[in-house]
Amino acid sequence: MTKLIEYEEASAEVRAVYDDIRATRKTDYINNFWKALANHPPTLQRTWQTIKEVMTGPGELDPLVRELIYIAVSVTNGCDYCISSHTAAARAKGMNDAMFGELLAIVGTANMTNRLANGYKIPVDEQFQS
Fold first, then answer.
1. What is the distance between the alpha carbons of residues 14 and 36, in angstroms, rounded to a whole number?
2. Same domain, 76 and 117
3. How many C-beta neighbours within 10 Å does residue 45 have?
């Protein structure tokens, strides 16, 4: 298992990222994902900057929709950690059990139809092409 780097033992570079995570998320908590990535500070920094920009930066999608998309991709990719952390984040942004159930129904249906379309090698309809 990967060593988790706690704030107290972190380098100044890692502490700076942890401090930014705390400020951006308005929490004192640093989750295990970031503590694991801290084993390689350049990856920690790069990943945090991307997540910060995509998940909290300005955009047309509201924060709950962004979390729902993240859950959907995480379910499809089988990332238990990401499913758990983004489900918690979505619940904090207003997702309820009914929404979660509907989301999973859509994810399951999309995965099934994607596999059927790929298996049958169905050509894309001309009207759907952009």
1. 11
2. yes
3. 17
With 0-12 / 13-18 / 19 or more C-beta atoms within 10 angstroms meaning exposed / middle / buried, residue 113 is: exposed
- The answer to the question of residue 108 being in a domain is yes
Write out the two tokens for 83: 């499913």
The total number of structural domains in the chain stands at 2
> Does one domain contain both 2 and 53?
yes
- Name the pTM for this structure: 0.92
Per-residue pLDDT tens over the stretch 11-54: 999 999 999 999 999 999 999 999 999 999 999 999 999 999 99
Same structural domain, 54 and 64: no
Encoded tokens for 54: 């995509």
- Containing 71, the helix (H) or strand (E) segment is helix 63-77
Q: Are 95 and 126 in contact (CB under 8 A)?
A: no
Tell me how far CA of residue 124 lies from CA of 106, 112, 117, in angstroms: 21, 17, 9
d(CA 39, CA 52): 19
pLDDT per residue as tens digits for the range 56-91? 999 999 999 999 999 999 999 999 999 999 999 999
